[in-house]
Amino acid sequence: MEQHPNPESPIAVSGLCKSFGSLVVLDRITFQLKAGEVTCVLGRSGTGKSVLLKLLIGLETPDSGSIRLEGYDIASASGGELNEARKRVGFLFQQAALYDSMSIEENVAFPLRRHTKLASAERSERVHRLLASVGLEQDLDKMPSEISGGMRKRVGLARALALDPSVVMFDEPTAGLDPITAAEIAKLIVELRAKRHITSIVVTHDLHTARTIADRVIVLDRGKALFDGTFEGLDQSKDPFIAQFVEDAA
Amino acid sequence: MCHSMCGMATTVAPQPTLKDDVLAFLQPLRSAIEWTGDLGFFFWRVTKAVFSRPIEWAEFVRQLDAIGARSLTLVSLAGAATGAVLALQMRDSLARFGAKSMLPSVIVFSLIKETGPIITGLVVSGRVGAGIGAELGSMRVTEQIDAMEASAVDPHKYLVATRVLACIAALPLLTIAADFCGVFMGWIACTLVDPVPLRLFLSNGFHGVRFADILPPTFKTAIFGLIIGMVACFQGMRTRGGTEGVGRSATSSVVLSSLFIILADVVLVELIINIF
Predict the structure, then answer these.
(1) CB–CB contact A95 B143 (8 Å)
(2) A11: closest CA among A46, A59, A52, A45?
(3) CA atoms of A47 and A172, how far apart (whole Å)
(4) Which structural domain, as residue segments, surrounds residue B95?
(5) What fold characterizes domain A8-88+165-239?
(6) Is residue B1 a part of any domain in this protein?
(7) Contact: A97, B152; criterion CB under 8 Å
(8) What is the pTM of this model?
(9) Which residues of B are less than 8 Å from A95 in CB distance?
(10) Collapsing DSSP states into helix, strand and coil, what is residue A64?
(11) Do B147 and A91 lie within an 8 Å CB cutoff?
């Protein structure tokens, strides 16, 4: 069945369940994102936050439930449909996942070479612009092993934005970074919403960063969504886990 | 008192039953069947990727260079050493039977029909199999393969199919190089003991050699290439468990591809003898 994009709700998840063996990682998760919204998924380590992102983009298969990404039903999509949905999405991995065998410039150019018919000069100009937007226009020829963790994240972000996506997924974008670099990454995420009206879903356990960037927050614990709402609601929550989480992060 | 003793009794681990023992005994067999099934499914995915467009020419050429051109020195040295050893070993043996004049033919036939292809297969399996297993394993554990899928690029097509095709194309060419170096070094080893002109050595060595003696053994190494590429990519793509897993993938790639090459050689030799 042909599927069509739905710009009103770029991501819609309903009754999503995922287990690994006897370990239930996600249990009937339901939420819907609005276009242009930045949503943070918070929770302790090992609560299935990264698995949720991988399910959204089809890198993992759900046990049950439905995922609609840009109008495509990810669970039942054919290979071609899945790729069409993925072209509309940028993904920043926890360790940036830059291709070791390619330079920074080649990393960012990779999606453009694969999915566009841009001429070499035009592609190069676009890569330079993307790298300049994350403050890395000077380091084009360096290899991923030659740059710092923060720079790798910024290159990963430039690569994620290469195809001009309408949705960007961030897996722990500030993990392992010093506070200044973490603030720079957070600033870039905020700019994406302001300048490009990009819908973002950010998985993190860093409540401070989440408050800086997000419009909405979803808290996961033991596979369940304990909270879904604004930070005002989160601060007023009476749930013992959430209260503890907020207090410890303060 | 009784309460606490009862409590202690419940913490004792239950004795394994006969069923547990049987299941534990059969576990390796079950793992082997699962591995074979997964490999079959992987083979099918890669075959489909090979025949789907676009063709990854740039990556294929890059892999052909990494797998073929960069193995040339090692394979040539291995072939040369084999030729020299054959010449030195066979000289005495043939002399005992009064057949020393057959030495060039023995070297040439031995190299082109069996020794050259199998040495090439095993040497490339060691160098390239470990390299592919470690490279793809490392890409797997650092999420580079996930990143490729997330950007709508099929890693089975971009990473696996190109490496497998490069292995298939490179092995016969490397075998020719190994054969050439083996024959040449065999002549040098012979001529150091008992000088003989190269032309005479080659004329004696290749006397009676038909294309059917050269082509099938050389092109059977394309099957060795398929085995090396497929097994190493499969082991690399299913890597789990961080750097330790990468090491395991590299080792198992070499061990399994070498084993399968030897087994395949037995079957292929029998087939070649029957067909040609």
Answers:
(1) yes
(2) A52
(3) 13
(4) 56-275
(5) Rossmann fold (3.40.50)
(6) no
(7) no
(8) 0.87
(9) 142-143
(10) strand
(11) yes
